[in-house]
Amino acid sequence: MEARGFIFGAAVAAKLALPFLPIRKSGKLPCDTIGVDYALEYGSDRLEMDPASIADGQRVVMVDDLLATGGTACATAELLRKAGAVVEQAFFVIDLPDLGGAQKLAQCGVRVGALMEFEGD
Description:
Helices cover about 25% and strands about 35% of the residues. A hairpin with a 2-residue loop joins strand 2 (about 35-40) and strand 3 (about 45-50). The chain contains three helices and six strands, in the order αββββαβαβ. It has one domain (about 5-115): Rossmann fold (3-Layer(aba) Sandwich). The strands form two sheets. The chain has a three-stranded antiparallel β-sheet with strand order 1-3-2, with helices on one face. The protein has a three-stranded parallel β-sheet with strand order 4-5-6. It has helices at about 5-15, 70-80, 100-105; strands at about 25, 35-40, 45-50, 60-65, 85-95, 110-115.
């Protein structure tokens, strides 16, 4: 997903010899895009992707650095599904479980894995 997630997502994709698909904030991609708007704690934002980069029914795993409230991750799953992808799993380097992101992703139909968790606000 957007920003720091590229470091981890691209590395995982390269290691597994799989394609890497960037999900970006509005206006950052140099191609025609589809997007979704989503709510943040302090306003709203938009994520976009190249719809031609996903084949209908293609299985996709989301990878990012941090899971906090889950808003961006759920919006990413929604966007990927809008493009025709099957999204069932997301992996994060860090989960902040007290912020409820894993539960929010579960409600979006996405299972979560994380390398480490840090409790507390």
